[in-house]
Amino acid sequence: MFKIKEQKRVIKVYYPPYQHVAKNEQINYKKVAGDPRYPKLYEVGDDYIVLDYIEGKTFFQCLQEGIPILPEHVKQVDDALLFARNRGLNPSDIHLHNLIITKRGDVCIIDIARFSQSKPCEQWNDLKSGYYRYYHKAYFPSKLPKWLMDVVAALYRTRKGTSNHT
Length: 166
Ligand SMILES: Nc1ncnc2c1ncn2[C@@H]1O[C@H](COP(=O)(O)OP(=O)(O)O)[C@@H](O)[C@H]1O
Ligand SMILES: [Mg+2]
Description:
There is one protein chain. By secondary structure, this protein is α+β, with helices and mostly antiparallel strands. Helices cover 39% and strands 16% of the residues. The strands form 2 sheets. It has a 4-stranded antiparallel β-sheet with strand order 1-2-4-3, covered by helices on one side. A hairpin with a 4-residue loop joins strand 1 and strand 2. The chain is globular. The structure holds adenosine-5'-diphosphate (ADP) and magnesium ion (MG). Adenosine-5'-diphosphate is lined by residues 1, 10, 12, 39, 51-54, 58, 97-98, 110-111, 166. This is Ser/Thr protein kinase.
């Protein structure tokens, strides 16, 4: 992922053997085109795509830096995923690094190559349960160390048998 200076865009390059993922991701972005909760797709190549640069913080950074993730953000993710479903996609691989709270306070979802997989994915539901069960509670710390979140994510992947995505 490279930020293009002077333009508010990023270029995502897929290295071998993952070039074919570029195709999936661009097809998926075209399906959700026009929705502000997904970055706009500008250009595509065999092994790259060019997207809007979303200025903001990922949910992961929010937890790390103590920036509140509000119930309306969770609701916006739900709505955006429902929208993708209505466009024939199967939202998958929803995790803290792929959800951004923009500078304006709205949610944006990135990294949607796996939205076209057929296998069901429980990841967002699991995150949401965690949000309401723990994050919402008064005793939940305002900031979480990165190492702890990395450990939790690794344990989750081991339990669920999912691979090491970012
Ligand atoms: N359009 C974007 N605007 C801003 N930051 C982005 C954008 N796309 C990706 N990023 C940042 O780069 C990271 C990796 O991008 P991502 O598309 O998730 O690649 P990967 O498929 O390797 O996980 C994201 O977690 C996010 O921090
Ligand atoms: Mg990612």
